Design the sequence.
């Protein structure tokens, strides 16, 4: 999804001063902005807007209580501390709506989190729809879930959330991987049955010490998918070794990495 991030308008001089102070605390590791607080905040704000969207679309039986929204958030990947403001926050959301099942088990929401404890969230258009939707009267209206602004309580609990049930486990491929004439390889990842949310995280491909690419993976429980990478001329020759390393954000991994022989 192409991020469409807009900043919240300044509310008052006091907010600006408080934001600057919060930014200073962030640099010292004392920011109010934590993964746990976002994981508690975004499900509620999302649910309110999702219910508003359902009413516009004429979907019945969708309530805040029935959605059971859950979130797992991450800032900037596995090597960045999950704390502080920034536009590099991602929250993987899962929820229960029989009208619109989640194809990948989760939807990735991009967050621009500000130092005043407010943030802008944008949802994946393939799941929540485009910037406008057609209501029951045939009118094009703003999509309340496409992008929204909200704030969280800096005094709220900061504990991490966990999905109910046994976490799904990611299985990395073993053995060999075939390269086509253009150097493309398509290793297949699998996610076991387990808790809602399935498997999500970051997959890094390397040839020797060179990083080919890092991509995000999202798989529904019991799902699988191929993840293409393109190797350069010398890397695609038979005998090259492709190493895949998984950094799970949702679920676990049966092994941290695997090395495949390129054919």
Sequence:
């Amino acid at each position: 999804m192409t991020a469409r991030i807009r900043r919240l308008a300044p509310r008052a001089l006091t907010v600006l001063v408080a934001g600057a102070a919060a930014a200073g605390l962030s640099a010292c590791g004392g920011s109010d902005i934590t993964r746990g607080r976002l994981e508690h905040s975004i499900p509620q704000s999302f649910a309110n807007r999702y219910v508003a969207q359902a009413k516009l679309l004429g979907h019945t039986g969708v309530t805040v209580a029935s959605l059971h929204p859950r979130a797992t958030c991450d800032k900037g990947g596995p090597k960045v501390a999950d704390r502080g403001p920034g536009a590099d926050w991602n929250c993987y959301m899962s929820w229960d709506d029989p009208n619109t099942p989640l194809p990948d088990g989760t939807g990735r929401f991009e967050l621009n989190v500000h130092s005043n404890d407010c943030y802008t969230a944008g949802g994946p258009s393939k799941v929540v729809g485009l910037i406008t939707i057609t209501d029951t009267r045939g009118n094009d209206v703003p999509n309340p879930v496409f992008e929204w602004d909200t704030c969280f309580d800096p005094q709220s609990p900061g504990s991490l959330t966990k999905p109910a049930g046994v976490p799904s486990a990611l299985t990395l491929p073993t053995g060999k991987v075939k390269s086509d004439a253009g150097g493309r390889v398509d290793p297949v990842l699998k996610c076991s049955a387990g808790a809602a949310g399935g498997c999500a995280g970051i997959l890094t491909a390397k040839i020797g010490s060179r990083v080919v690419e890092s991509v995000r993976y999202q798989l529904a429980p019991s799902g699988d998918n191929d993840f293409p990478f393109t190797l350069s001329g010398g890397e695609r020759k038979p005998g090259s070794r492709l190493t895949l390393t998984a950094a799970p954000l949702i679920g676990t991994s049966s092994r941290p990495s695997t090395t495949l022989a390129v054919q």
The domain at 169-262 is CATH 2.60.40.10 (Immunoglobulin-like). The helical segments are 13-27, 35-57, 64-67, 125-128. Residues 1-29 have pLDDT under 50 and may be disordered.
